[in-house]
Amino acid sequence: MLTVHNLTVNYKKQSILTQLDFSIEGSEVVGLVAPNGTGKTTLLKSLVGLLPRLDGTLTIDETIELANQREKYLKQIFFLESAQNLYPDLTVKQHLEMTKELWHSTILLSETLALFQIASFQDMKVRNLSLGMKQQLLLSLYCISDAHLLFFDEPLNGLDPTNTQLFNSFIKKLAKQNKAIIMSSHNLESVAALCTRVVFLHDGKLVELSDTSDSLQEKYNDLFGVPGGFDYEN
Ligand SMILES: Nc1ncnc2c1ncn2[C@@H]1O[C@H](COP(=O)(O)OP(=O)(O)OP(=O)(O)O)[C@@H](O)[C@H]1O
């Protein structure tokens, strides 16, 4: 579905992604894991053309290239970095209606309101929502977009256990609908439970976890662990 070739991103002199190659097909749920400040958000933003200077090729379905068919390419992907990208003066319902219209989606508003149980606050403005309520709305927008590729950046942020379970069911349903999903997360337990593949971002490249039966924590520690660990005794 999406093929990334030779993707290189630098911020001034800081190299973030280096000649990165990657692809994802429908029904895959790819977990993107790395320490803070490594480049997960940068990678997701670059996949949706949000970074002005970028080297490499991004192609959907082997023919639709970001560089020369930007609109067609972007119509396939839904990515909203965080709840900070919501409009404070619009209500929950207005966000849903706007997204439905922009994405020409046939998903029903009622279905989306039920998914994360947000009907009771559909008429509230975003500025009056709690952190978790904003996250419920953000995830509901993914649902109503009905896009083929869905990129989530820390989707579990601020979610209570019930909403975390609802999110897990939502992802499984999307995968069954042949959607391609990338989710960055620091929650290794959720990543292990939900993802069909796990990739670590390390030194500007993606390192694939070859054996999913390996403990994610062990692999994470191998790649990113603090040398020698912390010594609290001294
Ligand atoms: N607009 C920018 N200009 C300059 N440097 C930036 C910019 N955005 C991010 N960076 C730098 O790029 C690096 C990667 O940041 P990014 O937000 O992609 O990391 P992340 O892996 O998503 O982190 P976290 O897990 O903390 O969300 C960091 O060193 C950050 O300071």
From TrEMBL:
Residues 2-228 form the ABC transporter domain. SMART domains: AAA (SM00382). CDD domains: ABC_DR_subfamily_A (cd03230). The keyword Membrane does not apply. SUPFAM superfamilies: P-loop containing nucleoside triphosphate hydrolases (SSF52540). GO terms for molecular function: ATP binding. Pfam families: ABC_tran. PROSITE patterns: ABC_TRANSPORTER_2. Keywords: ATP-binding, Nucleotide-binding, Transport. This is ABC-2 type transport system ATP-binding protein.
